[in-house]
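Incident log, support desk, overnight shift.

02:14 A customer reports that sequence design results differ from what the structure should imply. Their input is reproduced verbatim below. On-call engineer (initials T.W.) acknowledged and began investigating.
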């Protein structure tokens, strides 16, 4: 396992890792170059198990041994001091391990729907932390896939991957385009589109009947703004999580988790 020592944060060999805290720059760099960054050993190993090809590793020189059991193949391992890592990435890499992976082509929405019984659909979710938390909830609460409107943020952005604890690699996802017309494709596949809203005339989620639960597609919108009128009109049923003490709604990630649990509460574990 040859290790290449990096002493200059501007070394072109670690260009994949430059300015990781600059969201705009990373958005322009990662998808066009077909890569994403995994942070932390647990996340890195989950990406490997999911079959993503690794481009390179960048680790704290004192933590090289953490990779000793990996078959790194031809992917180079770069090691540096914490200071050089911070200068290159823009933050203190306290987990000490980073890796650059190649992206894989996204499946078509029809392919994802054909293999799913229950899905979550997101419109314009533009916060990476929320998106990562949603993927973790989906993975843990028995939902089979996530469909994203074209305006959602990138699930493979470093923060989304980290917050999901790598579960973004375990959950199939696809883009749903054109939006919101492609919601008709979801309905045609036999799903009931359940639009989550705090509207007072919406159906309490615990009151959905067996037919509405059988193949449910939970539709949620961006934090604050919620679903657009066009998306709401393309749904089958408007659904609410009943709230108390004057609170009108939950954070979108929390609402996703509650709704997923409710729909799957009778599933065998």
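02:41 Re-run completed on a clean worker. Output:
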């Amino acid at each position: 396992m040859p290790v290449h020592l990096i002493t200059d944060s501007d070394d072109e060999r670690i260009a994949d890792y430059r300015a990781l805290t600059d969201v705009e720059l990373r958005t322009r760099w990662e998808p066009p170059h077909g890569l994403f960054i995994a942070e932390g050993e647990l996340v890195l190993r989950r990406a490997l198990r999911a079959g993503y090809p690794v481009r390179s590793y960048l680790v704290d020189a004192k933590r090289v041994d953490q990779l000793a059991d990996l078959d790194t193949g031809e992917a180079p391992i770069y090691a540096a001091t914490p200071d050089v890592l911070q200068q290159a990435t823009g933050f203190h890499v306290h987990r000490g391990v980073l890796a650059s992976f190649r992206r894989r082509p996204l499946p078509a929405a029809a392919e994802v729907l054909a293999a799913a019984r229950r899905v979550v659909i997101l419109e314009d979710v533009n916060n990476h932390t929320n998106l990562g938390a949603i993927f973790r909830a989906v993975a843990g609460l028995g939902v089979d896939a996530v469909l994203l409107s074209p305006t959602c943020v990138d699930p493979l952005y470093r923060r989304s991957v980290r917050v999901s604890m790598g579960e973004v690699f375990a959950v199939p996802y696809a883009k749903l385009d054109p939006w919101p017309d492609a919601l008709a494709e979801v309905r045609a596949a036999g799903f009931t589109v359940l639009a989550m809203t705090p509207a007072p005339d919406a159906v309490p989620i615990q009151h959905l009947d067996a037919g509405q639960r059988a193949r449910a597609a939970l539709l949620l919108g961006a934090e604050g703004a919620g679903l657009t009128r066009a998306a709401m009109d393309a749904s089958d049923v408007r659904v609410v999580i009943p709230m108390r003490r004057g609170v009108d709604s939950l954070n979108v990630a929390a609402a996703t988790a509650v709704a997923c649990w409710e729909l799957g509460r009778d599933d065998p574990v």
